[in-house]
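INTERNAL AUDIT FORM
Audit reference: QA-55
Scope: verify that the stored structure record matches its stored sequence.
Auditor: D.O.
Record contents follow.
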Amino acid sequence: MKKIWNLRVSFWLRIIVLFCGILVNVSIINNYRNVSSDFVQDYIASYSFRSGGALYGENIAKLSKEILGFSGIKNFHPPFNTLLFLPLSIIKQHTLLWVLFQ
């Protein structure tokens, strides 16, 4: 009896973990629909750092709305990436993208 109960609990725990994983993946995929590049996250984080704001949280959402015209960008990168992108944050984003991709 105890073995059957353990198998049932194990089965339902696996189902719950699988369901939670699917929800997390859907959230990540939804963010990549808006921005398919890590460049935008690092650029906005370094722009925020240069202007004295926070690297994570609501400040990034406000700046992305200001710069890109839509919100929903979350910065998942370590703070070191911000320092690497700091020189690029001086240039306006549209000019920088034109220079990089032309």
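Auditor finding: record pair retrieved intact. DSSP finds five helices and no strands in the chain.
Action required: none
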